[in-house]
Amino acid sequence: MLESLRSLVQLKSFEWDRIERRLLRCGNIDDVRRIAKRNLPGGVFDYIDGGAEDEVSLGRNTSAFVDMKLHPNVLRDVAIVDTSTTLFGVERQTPILLAPTGFTRIANPEGELAVARAAAKYGMPYGLSTLGTRGIEELAAVAAAPLWFQVYVWKDRGVVKEMLSRAEQSGYEAIIITVDTAVLGRRERDVRRGFTLPPKIGLDTLIDGALHPRWSIDLLRNEPITFANVAGMTDIDGTTAIALSDYVNAQFDQALSWESLEWIRSATNLKVVLKGIQRVDDAQRAMSEGIDAIALSNHGGRQTDGTLAPVQLLPDVVDAVGGGIAIICDGGVRRGSDVVKACALGADAVMVGRPYLYGLGAGGERGVEWVLDHLVSGMKRTMALCGRSTVRDLTRDLVTF
Ligand SMILES: Cc1cc2nc3c(=O)[nH]c(=O)nc-3n(C[C@H](O)[C@H](O)[C@H](O)COP(=O)(O)O)c2cc1C
């Protein structure tokens, strides 16, 4: 009796590592998000998770992918599925890029270093933000991943020029100019919480910190979080608590225009990506200006609320400029099947932001790796199930809205 029971029930060995144990129980990115929510103080989680105003753009970014339908082919040889693709003339393991996110160390003290190490394992380019918390050179020293540097155009062009030349000297591959942030979107979760960067210590923060002791100890044990790339170049460098909107509105150039791009392009030899394109006419303009790539993006729903999801804009943009300029689709990607859908509509690559931040908050570098693995394996599985063995085989007939 005991013998037959033993043959039926195999005891699982207990995983002693807390992070590993939790990640093993995750089925998807939503599960990882839930762990990050548990680990991080409420204000920090909301800064990462939230969007602008009614969060309509934020919700639409993910629901647009959910609502799309796949039309799989069967009986095609999918014994070997190849996710590789070419971007900027370089072969990449997948069409997945990691989007720039500001103040990353708030999710985990390693911050961008952990993200870059995980990105390298999957051969994914990673964009460091102007508002990053690791320096351009510091990241380049540890990162085997191709690095891109995201530029917010400061009123003081000296700051921009210096960052551009540091990125070039440090071997970065491309510059991402973010063009959807003339002023900061109204992120109402941050407004309600009075969220500042770094978090200001008030009674509510103290209580939140006490409820998340691991996060608080990490924060206290490690070097202070600063805007590492503009530290010392402006009067505010992240060491003073300030509402992000006040910072952005004071430093960023609201007069930035198409005409300003000429100056930026003359200041760098790197590939230039314009991030935040949301209309066909702007995509056409970018192409006629000789820009190397556009990222269709609504900043993950954190800037203008009520916009189309970038993936909904893809077919029109591909029809207008496809083949003339590389097209990156950014926002709402939560599964490998989403990557397949965007590529089928003609995207050359997709970028993900929150997914890797949830991973970072849930389990540091291992959490990021979990997320990247989930995206890549999901992409491979979807391609096999749809009868498409290469990225080139991902064609528009595969999806409908
Ligand atoms: C916490 C956070 C910080 C961000 N910071 C920046 C930034 O500094 N520069 C930038 O161009 N985009 C920034 N973004 C937008 C991302 O680059 C990207 O467009 C967005 O996250 C994509 O949507 P997803 O989060 O649904 O993947 C940020 C997004 C998040 C969630």
Count of discrete structural domains: 1
Total of DSSP H or I helical runs spanning 4+ residues: 17
| Level-2 CATH architecture | Alpha-Beta Barrel
* CATH domain class: Alpha Beta
The amount of helix comes to 40-55%
Q: Could you give me the name of the CATH homologous superfamily? A: Aldolase class I
Strand content: 5-15%
SSE string, helices as H and strands as E: HHHHHEEEEHEHEHEHHHHHEHEHEHEHE
Estimated structural class: alpha/beta
List low-pLDDT spans. none
The tally of strands reads 12
Report the principal-axis shape. globular
Mean pLDDT: 93
**Radius of gyration based on Cα positions:** 21 Å
Distance between the termini: 56 Å
Main pleated sheet: 8 strands, parallel
Which ligands, by name, code or SMILES, are bound?
Answer: flavin mononucleotide
In the CATH scheme, what's the topology name? Answer: TIM Barrel
**Strand order across the largest sheet:** 4-11-10-9-8-7-6-5
